[in-house]
Amino acid sequence: MNNIHIGVDPGSVSGCIALIYTTDGNIKSIETIEFAKYTTKEWFNKLKSFIGLTYNIDTIANRNYIYCTLEKVHSFPGMSAQSTFAFARNVGHIEMALLALNIPFKEITPQVWMKYYNLKKMKDESKPDWKRRLREYLQRILPDIKITNNIADAILIAYYTMKINQ
Length: 166
Description:
alpha/beta, 5 helices, Nucleotidyltransferase, domain 5, 5 strands, 5-stranded mixed β-sheet
């Protein structure tokens, strides 16, 4: 059976969608869409293309082999109004894209997927150090994939999605 496992990290600057394609439980390929590299229309069309929706999007409702997890996020104290607005707008675009493509998704907090991997940000750990640690952890799981800090969270979420839906 062929499955697509999607993980979405909705960060406004370093956000990403990761898609893991599997056949009979084995990873066949991993694709990523980094939001910073595309306009909203471009990443929407790329997502649409990756999931093979070159025909009527209503037919995807009958597919039960696409699993999607969207990281449930919120603004943080100290974020500027402009940053908060951009962040919320990006989340809205993502939700609308998933709804428009009829991709069922569930939302989970970062703590849920991080707990699955037994990962936790240390109290005094800087954000760059934390991102590096996540990337290095993922690189051990998927040694054949080139991982960057910008795509690590999304791939970890997609991998989590794959593991809980096997």
